[in-house]
Design goal:
The structure holds two protein chains of two kinds. By secondary structure, chain A is mostly beta strands. Helix content of chain A is 0%, strand content 54%. Classes of the chains: A mainly beta, B mainly beta. Chains A and B meet through β4, β5, β6, β7 and β8 of A and β5, β7, β8 and β9 of B.
């Protein structure tokens, strides 16, 4: 067996193989609503499992009400290289004129969503970063 | 000093016992911004291959002003580290999403560490 490679010593761990499906996604799955009712970005997200994969549906604030960005597959990330507890996810929405990359992590029961809005059109708009907070709600979103 | 300039420099981990990233250097050249990371190793520091960073407007406000954030991906062969970096109240924050590309069985994971500017 070859020596385990690492770039920081916290990655030097001995563990039985952990597959993505082994990671508990319980804390991630649910309907999440933006803590800021005046947001101009993603108002709510629906995180669910389908065919063993984590799926993410986002609803953004639009001119005429919530805009459904559709559903994309999210990659699950654990709390550490030997952990089986899901601590966050990463996903990308391709909106044509823009790509929105998301990096999410659970912190104190909140979903902290880092958003990278990368414009691909010739509108001259500057790509930007923002971070918003979401609380899990029992409200059921349509999907 | 521009908001971009404020990101430049050598940043040291606030946690001297970290087992992750020891320090980070953000530099600018003719082609843009480069980020260099030094990880904590068994027998000394591990220098990661530097990565080009995408500079983004940070629409979170700090002291009533909009700042800048960086998005950078480090390709380490056996692992890909997708990171974003920003300054929050003078603290440089690195959020790292690590994906293992080898067959070591390790779980992909995320981490967040805090850095102060080298005095």
């Amino acid at each position: 067996m070859s020596k385990m490679q690492f770039a920081q010593i916290c990655d030097l761990v001995e563990t039985d193989p952990i597959h993505a499906r082994d990671i508990d996604r319980g804390a991630l799955v649910g309907n999440w609503i933006n803590s800021n009712p005046d947001t101009s970005s993603i108002a709510r997200v629906n995180v669910f499992e389908e065919d063993g994969k984590l799926q993410l549906q986002a609803f953004a604030v639009g001119q005429a009400g919530p805009g459904d960005w559709g559903t994309t597959t999210a990659n699950v990330f654990a709390a550490g290289p030997a952990s089986r507890v899901g601590a966050g996810f990463a996903a990308t929405f391709n909106l044509g004129f823009a790509e929105v990359r998301l990096q999410a992590m659970i912190m104190k029961g909140l979903l902290v969503l880092a958003q990278f809005h990368l414009f691909k059109d010739d509108s001259g708009r500057e790509s930007y970063f923002m971070r918003e907070y979401y609380a899990k709600t029992h409200e059921h979103f349509n999907r | 000093m521009t908001h971009e300039d404020k990101l430049l420099g050598r940043w040291l981990n606030t946690n001297h016992e970290t087992r992750g990233i020891a320090e980070c250097t953000v530099a600018r050249d003719a082609y843009g911004i480069t980020v260099s990371i030094t990880g904590v190793g068994e027998d000394g520091p591990i220098q990661w291959p530097p990565a080009r960073a995408t500079l983004l407007a940070n629409v979170e406000e700090e002291a009533g002003q909009r700042t800048r954030a960086l998005l950078a991906t480090f390709d380490l062969g056996f692992m890909r580290a997708e990171t974003h970096m920003r300054i929050n109240k003078g603290v440089f924050v690195i959020v790292l999403f690590a994906t293992f590309l080898d067959d070591s069985g390790r779980a992909n994971y995320l981490n967040r560490e805090f850095f102060y500017r080298q005095p």
